[in-house]
What does this fold into?
Amino acid sequence: MTNGKLRIAIIGAGIGGLAAAAALHRFAEVDVTVYEQARRLGEVGAGIGLAPNGQRGLAHLGLREAIEAASAEFEGTGSYYRSDGTFIDNYASDDSAGEFRVRGIHRADLIDVLAGAIPADIVHTGHRLVGLSQDADGVELRFENGEVATFDAVIGADGIHSVVRESVTEPSEAVYSGSIAYRGVVDASQLPEGWSRNLKLWLGDGKHFMCYPVRRHELYNYVGFVKSDRPLAESWSAVGDVEDLRAEFAGWHPDLQAFLGAIDEVFWWGIRDREPLTTWTNGRLALMGDAAHAMQPHMSQGLNQAIEDGLALAAFLKDIGTADVPAALEGYAAFRMDRANTVQAASRRNGDRYDSQGEYEDLDKRDEEVRTTAELRRWVYDHDALVEATAAAAAARV
It folds into this structure.
């Protein structure tokens, strides 16, 4: 420790890494350093759904006002439809208490909010981790630029292809879902007058399409998921063909055709996740976010679960000495693993359900299950990661 404080390194300055840094800085009062391989902070991609559980965590960080200013609340009731426009059910958007409602936010805007919640000098860009080693006293990090640094604990927030994970658990391959996602944003002014300021989700045979507002309703995020065996792209910036996207959903409901007609740019990438890990920690190393529980996007929970991870880490690493770090990290993993794995499994199942695959080729069965998912969403939405992790950490120390 330096000046009596634990020294914690976070590898990766995406949404999860920055949220963890903000939580550790605010609640655990440790010395945090964030390393990012890119030359500057930023987040490519488009919009994401910020669920009530994620918003609750950000509110604990004092960011509720900033998030509300940068995002778009889902107004009224979102809807599920069959491909022909037949209404299936409303989309559960709020928590049980009605305190938080799903909001759409652009990834770049969320990165800006999170970066503003931590001291700028704790983030070090241009640092690609190439190796690490640990002993009883700490972890040594080695970077491509030649820098070497030692910490009391290291948190891997470095995504589905995490370098830190290689030192935590056995290697495994990312699992391709069989689907690609066409993704982008549309200027709201290009949509028909009175377009819903909420989420719309059309479900069909082997594909589905969703859209919702972001950035104060100035933009609409969209994602079209389709089955594909084309070569996979990891990049958010693989340029797609708008006409290919329109052809995939030709003949679907006229409202969707109107939305497709407003699209002038599209990107695509292959959807992957991983089989659940059996461990997230090794000594002074721990994983979080996609490094720990990469999941398909069909519950809109990837970033929200990462925010929960960051808050839980802060609760377990608060007020401990360096000798207690391994046990604290094990406590964090034990607290988080079952919940994250449950959400990960639900995300996979939702993908099959939305695409009417397997048992869901029976559309009546699919529709009925869609109607029952509100209960699961409320369980996800009502969680308060900071409060519950604080209680769990206190119980573990008794």
Summary: The chain has a mean pLDDT of 92. The longest strand covers residues 175-187. The domain at 7-173+274-397 is CATH 3.50.50.60 (FAD/NAD(P)-binding domain). The chain has one domain: 7-173+274-397.
